[in-house]
Design brief:
- The complex is a heterodimer.
- By secondary structure, chain A is mainly α.
- In chain A, helix 2 crosses helix 7, helix 3 runs antiparallel to helix 5 and helix 11 packs across helix 12.
- The relative contact order of chain A is 0.12.
- In chain B, strand 1 and strand 2 form a beta hairpin.
- By secondary structure, chain B is of the alpha/beta class.
- In chain B, helix 3 crosses helix 4 and helix 4 crosses helix 5.
- Helices cover 36% and strands 29% of the residues of chain B.
- Chain B is elongated, with a radius of gyration of 24 Å.
- In chain B, the strands form 3 sheets. A 6-stranded mixed beta sheet of chain B has the order 6-7-8-3-9-10, sandwiched between helices.
- The two termini of chain B are 32 Å apart.
- Classes of the chains: A mainly alpha, B alpha/beta.
- Chains A and B meet through helix 1, helix 2 and helix 6 of A and helix 2, helix 3, helix 4, helix 6 and helix 7 of B.
Chain lengths: 305, 309
């Protein structure tokens, strides 16, 4: 190759270097929607460590198992000892289950959001996505959708287990179905809030370890503070401080929305009440979800290719 | 057919002008884009991919307008970025399959193509290991593979030899050459090293400070100069002696690093050189037509900031 053009301009016979030469691709190509779907599916699988190294499967699978375990025990108790204990509803209501297991859910999003979001920014892989047909906006929305659905699966699967168990234990099917669907809606909202919040934290920090710590701190600390304030407020006579405090953690926020919309059984010491709160809670939820999507789009506008 | 055309293409940032009224045409085969760091090469590539809007002027890639048809361009063009862009925890195989899908290949086709291009770039069993443990040379190969996975019409390679040791550099260069010839994919390859592009390009485009300095076939850069390089031996000052004798014989000659450069006037010049060497009792080691190297263009043009090999 040391002599320029003359010798090398005439194509050398294919197959000199390898057994077969380069084969062009003449097959079908899919459109943007199918590309977005495959990005979504890959992201969702990656959240549970599928298609990643064996090590990255451990944490999400353990968390999923830990989420299901209490539901399994509760269902077992319900089925075995319904008559004995005189139960006619779930020991832990659907709407309360996510609050009870909030630590597991927080650890899940704290581990998976940076793996999904920070990774592409940290390693510059985002450049390879941007150099492909899909747009920036599609990339951001699809990544957030993957994370949201992965979180929803984590929150929703024990609820499904409770629901099926409840039906097996002869709880009234109509009432259970209503409550279950309401709780699934709540789980979707909660997943969207958590995914949005952790996605924006991951996109800003970009360093994975830092992002994990930041998400944990924000979710766990905010819930602990809110729960403490509500507990104190409850002890000192519920003068509305606890209602306002509930706005500041995704768990209590979405729980409050469920209490208003579906009259779900409450699991916090000071459930929100009154007309003002009935507007504030859904509004705050909407702002959190829409705001995090907006913030993500704004953040990625500044990412250079 | 022209694969890239730009007309008065400009890109101005608040404090710098990256591209200044650039008019450039790129055809099939391998085209080298030469310029110093900061000459506007990477900016040009990003504009051509439709990722960065130009300030003024027009550009077409494969007949598509970069301003409005970026997605169409990106589905037909492969891009190998200059900087690191590979996730450490994924294997080369998984990554290239995934990126093939992102370019619009159905999954089975993406798998087959990924395995094909990884073989072409020379990644064997290591393709199943995480990229984090790869050498720089292997990483560059993965970056090249992902640019080829969707069988593009054109690849834009931004400094593909960056950070490679001499032998991996040779491998990479011959690979780039093969893409332009055997694979039949048009290549635009940038480098700040001239010797590299001289070896692999059919055509060389030189940019400086966002302007086109020169654009011509590589053969034009390296045409014969009408000079003869003569090497003699036998005495310590053999070259100087012969040079003096040639000048006395009415020829134009000057010493070049122990050898003598003679201007060829006609066929007889060769005989004169031979006879004079014999008269002086020196041994004639070689007579060689002197060719230009691309770097001479810069030396003459005064673009000293470009780093020759």
């Amino acid at each position: 190759m040391s002599s320029p053009s003359d010798a090398s301009r005439t194509p050398r016979p294919a197959g000199v270097i390898h057994d077969i030469g380069y084969r062009p691709y003449a097959g079908p190509r899919v459109d943007g929607r199918a590309v977005a779907w495959s990005l979504f599916a890959t992201g969702l699988r990656n959240c549970y460590g599928l298609g990643r190294s064996g090590r990255s499967k451990v944490l999400p699978m353990i968390l999923l198992a830990l989420m299901l375990l209490p539901a399994l025990i509760l269902v077992g108790v319900l089925v075995q000892a319904k008559e004995l204990l005189g139960l006619d509803e779930h020991i832990v209501p659907y709407s309360v289950y996510p609050i009870t297991t909030q630590l597991l859910i927080s650890v899940f999003v704290a581990a998976q959001a940076p793996a999904l979001i920070s990774r592409d920014l940290r390693f510059g892989t985002i450049t390879l996505y941007l150099a492909r047909p899909g747009s920036r906006t599609t990339y951001v929305l699809v990544r957030m959708a993957s994370l949201t659905v992965a979180t929803f699966v984590l929150i929703g699967s024990p609820l499904l287990l409770l629901y099926v168990g409840g039906l097996l234990a002869d709880l009234p099917p109509g009432r259970e179905t209503g409550r279950f669907l309401a709780a699934l809606f709540g789980a979707m909202l909660l997943a969207a809030c958590l995914a949005g919040l952790s996605a924006i934290i991951s996109a800003v920090t970009t360093r994975r370890g830092l992002a994990v710590a930041a998400v944990i701190v924000v979710l766990v600390v905010s819930y602990t503070v809110v729960a403490t304030v509500q507990g104190i407020d409850f002890e000192t006579g519920d003068d509305g401080v606890g209602d306002v405090a509930g706005l500041f953690s995704p768990y209590t926020l979405v729980h409050g929305v469920q209490v208003f919309l579906f009259d779900s059984p409450t699991g916090t010491p000071t459930p929100p009440s009154g007309a003002v709160m009935s507007v504030l809670y859904p509004a705050a939820t909407a702002i959190m979800i829409v705001g995090s999507v907006g913030a993500m789009l704004w953040r990625y506008r500044k990412v250079t290719a | 057919m022209l694969v890239i055309e730009t007309a008065a293409l400009s890109k101005r940032y608040p404090r710098v002008t990256a591209l200044d009224e650039l008019d450039m045409n790129v055809g099939e085969g391998v085209t080298g884009l030469v310029g110093a760091n900061g000459a506007g090469k990477s900016t040009l590539i990003k504009i051509l991919l439709g990722l960065v809007p130009s300030t003024s002027g027009a550009a077409h890639v494969l007949g598509f307008d970069v301003a409005t048809e970026g997605a169409l361009i990106r589905s037909r063009v492969g891009y190998m970025p200059e900087h690191d862009c590979l996730p450490a925890d994924a294997s080369a195989s998984d990554l290239v399959v995934h990126l093939g899908q992102m370019s619009g290949l159905p999954y089975p086709a993406a798998r087959e193509r990924a395995s094909d291009v990884l073989r072409h770039v020379g990644l064997a069993e290591e393709r199943y290991r995480p990229i984090g443990g790869y050498s720089t040379g292997m990483k560059q190969r993965v970056k090249l593979a992902q640019a080829l996975v969707h069988d593009p019409r054109l690849v834009l390679l931004d400094e593909p030899t960056n950070g490679l040791d001499p032998s991996s550099r040779d491998d990479m260069l011959s690979l780039v050459r093969r893409i332009g010839t055997e694979f039949g994919i048009a290549v635009l390859v940038t480098s700040h090293l001239l010797g590299e592009l001289e070896r692999i390009s059919d055509h060389v485009v030189v940019v400086e400070a966002g302007r086109l300095l020169r654009s011509s076939a590589t053969t034009d850069f390296t045409h014969a100069t009408g000079l003869l390089l003569v090497e003699v031996q036998g005495r310590a000052d053999a070259g100087r002696l012969l040079g003096q004798a040639l000048v006395d014989a009415g020829l134009r000659a000057r010493p070049v690093g122990g050898m003598v450069e003679v201007e060829v006037r006609d066929e007889a010049t060769y005989d004169v050189v031979r006879d004079l060497t014999a008269e002086l009792g020196l041994g004639l080691v070689r007579m060689q037509e002197r060719h230009h190297r691309i770097e001479d263009v810069f030396r003459e043009g005064g673009a000293g900031s470009v780093q020759p090999v």
